[in-house]
Amino acid sequence: MRNKDGLQPQEAFDELLKYLHFKQNSEHRSEEVVIERPLSSSGDFSIPDSKALKKIRTQFSSYLKSSGTEIRGIWPEEKMRMSDDTLHAIHSLFQDVRISELAVDIRSAALRLFISSEARRGTGVFLTPDDVVKAVVKIVDPAMGLSVYDPACGSGTFLIETIKHWRKQRVSSKKLPVYGSDINSRMLLLAHLNLDNSPEVQFHSQILDALSEEKSGAAWPRPNSIDVVLANPPFGVYVSQTDATVKKSQIPSEMLFTLNCLKWLKPNGMLGIIVPKSVVSNKSLSDSRRAIDKIGELKAVLNLPPETFSSTGTQTNTTVLFFSKRAKEAPKNGKIKIPVIDVVNVGVDSTGRHRPGSDLEQAANDLKQSITTGKAAGKVRMLIADSANPLDSLTTSAHTSKSDSKIKLGDLVELAQTGRTPARSAYVENGIFTVKVGNLTGQGIDWCPRERNFAAPERVSEKLILEEGDILLTSSAHNPRYIAQKVDIISTIPTWLNGKATFTGEVLRLRANQSKISPFELLALLRMPEVKQSIRELIRGQTAHLRPDDLVNICVDPGKVNKQLVKLLEEEAKLYAQLNVIAWKQNQLLK
After folding, report:
1. Going by DSSP bridges, is the β-strand pair 471-474/487-489 parallel, antiparallel, or unpaired?
2. 104-395 belongs to which homologous superfamily?
3. What are the contacts of 558-562 at 24+ separation with CB within 8 A?
4. Residue extent(s) of CATH 3.90.220.20 domains in the chain
5. Residue 528 has what DSSP assignment?
6. Of the candidates 28, 53, 163, 427, which lies 20 to 30 Å from 196 by C-alpha distance?
7. SS (H, E, C) 362-424
């Protein structure tokens, strides 16, 4: 369809849906069309069977006219746009496959493989990875017979996984209802192609904007009537809202979507929803979080790595939140434990290729166990949160440290700030050396100048001039794993740089209060694995950002600093300073 007829991705996707709609209807009505001259044994197209192709086109038009208004509205022209050569080739491949008899999970998997990631990006089809869907359903664990609804169902992935989950429990003697809605009529048709003819379920659907206040049909479930809601809603759109508990006139779509999902649930019903990390990290969304906390009790958090949705062309930091609908008002001034787990390997790398050793399945098992027992299992950590506002509690650093110490990092430092990235016009051949993320090594600062490493002196604030003893770490990156990965100390600023340097906005500076801790003791503290983990729990935004005012609030235990390690770090700094001198001299000789 794309190569032979030159169709754009959306047009090709439309023609695929048309053909599948025809094929399934022809099977239901026992009106299959057989092409007498199929593809040759070599795979070449034979002469199109004009009689069979005309029959296909006529039947498609007839089926469309007898379909519901939603499907007819998708293709008002009521005809296929494929050329005879292309239609002949496609039907030759499909005519011996009975789509209506395929198991629901096989049908879904086939469509996923058929529509490549490139084609999905071109059509706006963003499918939730199978392993993530499986993990969410496993954690929610919907019992057979409960009503399950996906308000942004797309191709029906969550509902298909729910069916597979029910199969493991027992075989039902009657069809069980599942509900799916989507604002995109084409995606809803794809869900029907996936879910129709399943012996286990009756798929109820409706074209519906789950963010709006529009009324659904009379036969559609009412708010407070659903047992389980599973969703991966669209991200990144600001929408107007009318909820009186949210003070802002516009909020991110994912916040309003979460709020609306909870409204569909019965009291004690369960919600599993995939959202960007900004939902729990951005301070500006506090009012929205409190509105969600008012009707939903946060039960668990599954943090996903940025590469989870790499096949869709995005590296967004996402998290899965699990709620139960509150049956009564939350107790005030109480504390609850929330199980949280961080998935490091989701089974794909940043390019979307398979990555062995996924820990997603084990993470789901551990999180499910922790929800049930109230105790940390495996790599789960239990965070202490405000019982009335558990979601909002996730943004406060006081609940992220595993240390028993009550000493905050801010008690040990006299300065914490991020730098400033100069404008492109501020860079010069010789000026003030600007430390970038690439100059951090985790062993010491690399002072060898690179492209755009110097800023004009008049463009640099004196407040951002580095001093010996300052400690620098990565504070902004596209992946959370890079935050605080490299922590270095300014042991000396080389003489060939005139002893003066500054740092960019992707780097954060700490200056030790030397009446309480030495710079090298602070360096050792910040390189400790448990402190790095506490730092990464502070990351905000859909990319990864660390804020100084968050960092100074983590609890640390300087008493755990190994004195021998401090001496080794001092020796390392001296050696790395010598290496910098050698590298500079080599560069001078090579000029």
Report:
1. antiparallel
2. Vaccinia Virus protein VP39 (3.40.50.150)
3. 558/405, 558/407, 558/412, 558/517, 558/521, 558/525, 559/405, 560/525, 560/528, 561/521, 561/524, 561/525, 561/528, 562/524
4. 411-590
5. S
6. 53
7. HHHHHHHHHHHHCCCCCCCEEEEEECCCHHHHCCCHHHCCCCCCCEEHHHCEEEEEECCCCCH
| pTM over 0.85, yes/no | no
> Which three-class secondary structure string do you get for 190-242?
HHHHHHCCCCCEEEEEEECCCCCCCCCCCCCCCCCCEEEEEECCCCCCEEECC
- Calculate mean pLDDT across residues 71-83: 88
pLDDT value for 341: 93
DSSP code, position 481 = G
Question: What's the token pair of residue 77?
Answer: 């022209």
Residue with tokens 């979307």: 352
The residue type of 390 is P
Report d(CA 420, CA 433) in Å as an integer: 13
Helix 157-167 vs helix 104-114: angle between axes, to the nearest 10 degrees? 150
Using H for helix, E for strand and C for coil, what is the string for 27-95?
Answer: HHCCCCCCCCCCCCCCCCCCCCCHHHHHHHHHHHHHHHHCCCHHHHHHCCCCCCCCCHHHHHHHHHHHC
Tens of pLDDT, residues 413-424: 999 999 999 999
